[in-house]
Amino acid sequence: MDQPNRSPQVQYLRCDGIGATFTDSGLKSAQWILCVIPADRTTAYANTVPSSAQSYQHLSVSAPFIAVVPAFARVKLVNDNDPRGLVVALDWARLRETARNALGTPTCEIPSWFKAWDPFLREAGDTLAALHASSSPNPRCLAAFAEVFALHLVHRYGHTADTSETGTSLTQSKLTVVEGFIHEHIADNIQIEDLAALLHMSPSHFARVFKKATGRPPHFYLTTERLKLAQSMLSEGSLPLVDIAARVGFQTQQHFTAVFHRYVGCTPRAFRLAHHRPSDLAMRFRLDR
């Protein structure tokens, strides 16, 4: 997702690169929202400007997540190494009614501060960024994107606006979403906040319902899944330990070794010596000789 260098404007949508700042006072005073879509290796931080009118809110977001925040929020980069991504501003006061009529749903809001794992909006952001980079983007096409964003936001997140987390359980389908995300992104620096965002829960509530459903805290589950994969790689291959550590989500080989020893009872090297299974190819080579 390349960083655009223009700010095409239509009646309901404006967009700019993730490192840019919306300075239009009309945008901030109207009922607009921002959809922040960072590209890989880019982390954005959104927070309210301290004032007596708004309670302080903040969140950080990086790929593969997106975030939705009010337009008065301040969005800045945590790191500026190759910043890429898109910030889409939507006139929510107008688009909400369009989406509600199209979907036939009662009046609803979406949460004002949240991040979510949303592959659809990430794909839409890629397409919008390519359109945005055009020398003369089609206003009708941009307006259509505004409606698509609004329809998706209302359909996927609108029902959570007035729903309390109290009593929310972790169903098998929700647990499957969490497990799938962990397996797909196990090499990444997964935080409990990220897992909670998958289900639109607060981290503390997610930790409670996850432990109730599985009998284990989220961090313990995540660690054991990393170590299961590591044990498989140690048994079946010959990758260096530093590469295995990186592939299962540990930033250093030293940390990987310490955690592995704590949970498994031996070092990764000792485990490999005791459990390594030669590949079929190597076995055939020895038999042929």
Automatic annotation (TrEMBL):
Protein name, entry field: AraC family transcriptional regulator
Pfam families xrefs: HTH_18
SUPFAM superfamilies assigned to the protein according to its UniProt record, in alphabetical order: Homeodomain-like
InterPro entries associated with the record: AraC_XylS_family_regulators, Homeodomain-like_sf, HTH_AraC, Tscrpt_reg_AraC-type_HTH
Coiled coil region boundaries: none
Record keywords: DNA-binding, Transcription, Transcription regulation
Residue ranges annotated for the HTH araC/xylS-type domain, each copy included: 176-274
Organism: Caballeronia concitans
Lineage: Bacteria, Pseudomonadati, Pseudomonadota, Betaproteobacteria, Burkholderiales
Gene Ontology molecular functions: DNA-binding transcription factor activity; sequence-specific DNA binding
SMART domains hit by this protein: HTH_ARAC
